[in-house]
């Protein structure tokens, strides 16, 4: 199982159909100032059903989206420690947390680009 957590303020994938499979989930974190999403992205999220979810922040604040994403990452690791986690963001502020989780045996990485199909 691979869980993708996408910082939509940082990375806006145009589509995900090529790199999301039946064993993947996607959490799309959307800032309060973001009001439009590309149709192809929405269509892919809809096709995921319960494996895809939008997490829209209600309030602005310094690093608000980052804190939300970190919370959901920790929650996921607590529930499914054997899964893989991919954080899609250009924000290198996640690197310390990711290194800490990796030292604890969690399979997690930060990706600052849109993945390509395997």
From TrEMBL:
Residues 5-105 form the PIN-like domain. InterPro entries: PIN7. It comes from the Bacteria. This is PIN-like domain-containing protein. It comes from Thiohalocapsa marina.
């Amino acid at each position: 199982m691979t869980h993708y957590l996408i910082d939509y303020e940082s990375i806006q994938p145009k589509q995900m159909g090529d790199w999301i499979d039946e064993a993947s989930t996607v959490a799309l974190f959307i800032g309060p100032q973001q009001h439009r999403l590309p149709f192809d992205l929405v269509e892919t999220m809809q096709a995921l059903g319960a494996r895809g979810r939008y997490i829209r922040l209600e309030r602005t604040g310094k690093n608000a989206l980052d804190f939300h994403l970190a919370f959901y990452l920790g929650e996921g690791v607590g529930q499914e420690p054997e899964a893989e986690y991919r954080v899609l963001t250009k924000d290198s502020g996640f690197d310390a947390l990711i290194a800490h989780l990796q030292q604890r045996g969690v399979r997690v990485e930060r990706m600052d680009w849109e993945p390509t199909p395997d």
